[in-house]
Design a protein that fits this description.
Elements lengths: L1 E4 L16 H13 L4 E4 L5 H4 L5 H9 L4 H7 L5 H24 L1 E4 L20 H17 L5 E5 L6 H6 L6 E8 L12 E5 L5 H18 L4 E5 L17 H17 L4 E4 L8 H23 L8
Parallel strand pairs: 1-2, 1-3, 3-8, 4-5, 4-7, 5-6, 7-8
Helix pairs in contact: 1-10, 5-6, 8-9, 9-10
The structure holds zinc ion.
């Protein structure tokens, strides 16, 4: 299975910054050591033209040349540097590359990404560009060029925070369905309505979460017929997360991943996934949740090998 990384483009953070940047490198190291089926590839950088599919050109330019105003910079939560701009582009490129690989092999990954708080003209909550939105729009454009048919994209956002940026970008776009399951009391406090939002109470456990996911997937089934699935497999619903406020176990999160991947697999839909948030009290717990997602994904990748390429490719 192909997985795209950009953690070697180091985004410099001041000492004591609360974002756990090391988690990306730790995940990559564990995958290399313990899951050799996952092939590590350097993420390409997204171009201005690609970013403009989901972002205002003036915002892209301001990120590139470091001219975002102080309020914008604070909202993103990372100090600007040329490396921050480069890393943000690579993270989008990783999801785009994962989508292309998924058309060939059924499933592929971005080792970072899932930056769902970024909207068309501003970033927020550690998100600069919205990799899911850019990738969805770019895949639609490529698909139309090749097949002269519209591609519908389903975004399944299971990060514990609501995908407000993604929802705002696709608010008036019926060709992309945004599903988000998230903590009702968690950031962002002003949520932007997506196509289907499921608010979960603080302390939500495995059973309640998986039941809510089941109902949500059934509802999607009634309303939308996707040709591609983008999955944001956030690690922050885990009970050991500093910010999550939910109480999912490792097993619960693994069952969540299996349910989403199985849903796509049964419908022969290519699926690309990104990691999103994870802020474990002990960072090893975040990396464990993400590693488990890759174990499940490698299993589905093996199943895809025994079946022809995705139906719409
Ligand atoms: Zn999150």
């Amino acid at each position: 299975m192909q997985a795209f990384y950009a953690d070697h483009f180091v985004l410099p953070l001041p000492e004591g910054h609360r974002f756990p940047m090391q988690k990306y490198r730790l995940l990559r190291d564990r995958l290399v050591a313990e899951l050799p089926q996952v092939r590590m590839l350097e993420a390409p950088r997204a171009t201005d033209g690609e970013l403009a599919l989901a972002h205002a050109p003036a915002y892209v330019a301001a990120v590139q040349d470091g001219s975002l105003d102080a309020a914008q910079q604070r909202e993103i939560g990372f100090p600007w540097s040329p490396a921050m701009a480069e890393r943000s582009r690579r993270s989008v490129g990783a999801t785009v590359a994962a989508c292309r690989a998924a058309w060939q092999e059924g499933i592929a990954a971005n080792l970072a990404g899932g930056t769902h708080h970024a909207s068309a003209d501003r970033g927020g909550g550690f998100c600069v560009f919205n990799d899911l939105a850019v990738a969805a729009r770019l895949m639609q454009a490529e698909h139309f060029r090749r097949h002269r048919r519209a591609l519908k994209v389903l975004i399944v956002d299971l990060d514990v925070h609501q995908g407000n940026g993604t929802a705002s970008i696709f608010a008036r776009d019926d060709s992309v369905f945004t599903l988000s399951l998230h903590g009702e009391k968690n950031f962002p406090f002003r949520k932007v309505a997506g196509d289907l939002d499921v608010d979960l109470p603080d302390g939500c456990t495995d059973e309640a979460y998986l039941h809510a996911l089941e109902l949500a997937l059934e509802a999607v089934e009634q309303r939308f017929e996707p040709g591609l699935v983008l999955y944001l497999a956030g690690a922050d619903p885990h009970e050991g997360d500093r910010l999550g406020r939910l109480k999912l176990s490792y097993d619960g999160l693994e069952a969540r991943d299996r349910r989403v991947l199985d849903w796509a697999w049964r419908r022969a839909l290519p699926l690309a996934f990104a990691m999103g948030g994870g802020y474990g009290h002990d960072l090893a717990s975040t990396v464990q949740v993400q590693f488990n997602t890759y174990r499940v994904a490698a299993d589905y990748h093996a199943r895809w090998r025994a079946r022809p390429a995705p139906r719409a490719a």
